[in-house]
Amino acid sequence: MRELTEQEVVRREKAEKLRELGLDPFGHSFQRNAYAQEIKEKYKDVEHDAFENMTDEAIVAGRIMFIRKMGKASFCTIKDKTGLIQIYISINDIGEEKYSLFKTADLGDIVGIRGKIMKTRTGEVTIKCLEYTPLVKALKPLPEKFHGLTDKEERYRRRYVDLIMNDDSRRVAFLRPKIIRCIQNYMDKQGFTEVETPVLSTLLTGASAKPFITHHNAQDLDMYLRIALELPLKRLLVGGMEAVYEIGRVFRNEGMDLKHNPEFTLMEAYLAYSDLEGMMNLTENMYQTIAKEVMGKMTYNWYGYEINLEGPWKRISMVDAIKEKTGIDFKQEMTLDEALELAREHQIVVEEHEKTVGHIINLFFEKYVEETLIQPTFLYGHPVEISPLTKRNVEDPRFVDRFELFIAGREFANAYTELNDPIDQLERFEEQLKEKDLGNDEANDIDMDFVEALEYGMPPAGGVGYGIDRLVMLFTESESIRDVILFPTMKPLNGTETVKKDIVVEPKKEVIDFSKVEIEPLFTDYVDFDTFSKSDFRAVKVKDCVAVPKSKKLLQFTLDDGTGTDRTILSGIHAYYEPEELIGKTLVAITNLPPRTMMGIDSCGMLLSAVHTEENEEKLHLLMVDGHIPAGAKLY
Are strands 221-225 and 537-547 parallel, antiparallel or unpaired? Predict the structure, then answer.
């Protein structure tokens, strides 16, 4: 049974009184003929005294955001989708019965107003109410007026309240579809056709990412939610559509942070008979069109940088950019051993599946260059090893005709001169499978149907992909992806939320089979008690947990260890846990180990995990203890 606050009880009683008067507290249709902002714009320059000779009326509707109730006359402010407008309401104009009805109104109620346009002595455009219609009784009070809904988690979780209270959230919500519509108009004018392609697939292709897996009951078939749009669109080029694009949701089963959400909006476009240069021009012109037609400005303050979208944008190759920062010239021929030695000299960790010259070039770029690309920059000439769907460069086949657009050190677009050689494409797919065998769980599957499509002949083409959410972040000057997605993915409160709270299902008792478990042999050498007791085992609370950039293994924990100062510990357990599922947990750490630097971050301690082998596969469980144990409690 829900417990109601005193205000909620009173509001329900008021709703019942409306019913007793024959009024529906949740209203019916209401025909309005004007909006708040257009009324204020139309009459803002009319002098106060001029309204005496005017009879202009308007019918508006909106939510009550402010009330100043007085004796026989009151003021309130209502908000519609365009903004706020003041209402003057008097017993002399609407009669005692309707005025008494108004006096029962609360903040958050939705009302309809017919009235005469006027201006107060302070110069505020106002509607003098002649007819008052209660439409919806709000049963919950709005957040406190001056502070609104300031908790970010609550803002994202209860977006409906956020949109009521925060004008900037409303601004972004209305700007996003305008930006997307501008993109569609721009692409249509360039001769492209917008299409729709399947969300469900039986193959993992088009990008390097972990997928969401679902099950098709009728066919008893496991399927992926798409991680990219690419291959179906290129099949349409084979079919002769020549210029196609799609704006759609894609799904990647990865961590959440300020720049990433598991489901996000991607746009991909493919143009027959074009190339890398054509995609650069298409991209630069599209951004500048949005800036001029939707936003009306060319400079944006984003992540502390002033970004200028005026052209021409800088264009530089990956190896030249690395050379500018490090002096190393990867354009010269180099053996794998030489590249590995350079990586060791520069403290760059190279995973087993990254042991190629091309991967090492990319690691150098990520460490030394990526975050320095502040103004719009087209970075081209990627190694072939990290671009399995891209055409090789004619002059140097070690590299491909590909570019990424970087702004403020972040990737905004990824484009290619598309690979249309089916033999080369199949070889690249096979290389991806080898990487998967070496531990790259984001490597692509072989899509033989796509290879066969290429065998029918795909015209030379350029292709480009844009993260629409990040694009909207730039234009709205938002620093979190959750600010530009109306309903971002959120971890449920208090565990899994279900609709039917009153139905209790007895959980099945889990039967755990330890018969196939192998454990490491126990140590036979003893440690004296004094040495053991010097290790400081403490309970720690996870305040935050994020994936370490450029690492597929490391998670960075921000921990409360009871001292009042946050502790940072890195742990290579990303293969077993997503960061957001660990926030709020109570773990066990050794806190008196000397700091160890990993990926440029000092790790101050070690979190304890239990490790075993099962059917030749390593299993890991992070040790989590009772949440009632306080941070800093010492373990014996």
Answer: unpaired
Q: What is the pLDDT of residues 96-106, one digit of tens each?
A: 999 999 999 99
Asked if 609 and 573 touch (Cβ cutoff 8 Å), the reply is yes
The separation between the first and the last C-alpha atoms of the chain, rounded to the nearest angstrom, is: 43
Whole-number Cα distances in Å, 388 to 381, 424, 494:
13, 9, 43
Cα 409 to Cα 247: distance, rounded to the nearest angstrom: 24
**C-alpha span between 349 and 549 (Å, rounded):** 13
CA pair distance 615, 1, nearest whole angstrom: 48
- CB count within 10 Å of CB 100 equals 11
pLDDT digits (tens, 9 = 90+) for 350-386: 988 899 999 999 999 999 999 999 999 999 999 998 8
Determine which helix (DSSP H) or strand (DSSP E) holds 7, and give its type and residue range: helix 6-20
82's tokens: 């365009």
Distances (CA, A) of 129 to 61, 87, 248, 516, 562: 12, 7, 46, 78, 59
Decide if 465 contacts 415 (C-beta within 8 A).
Answer: yes
How many CA within 13 A on the CB side of residue 385? Answer: 15
pLDDT tens, residue by residue, 262-308: 999 999 999 999 999 999 999 999 999 999 999 999 999 999 999 99
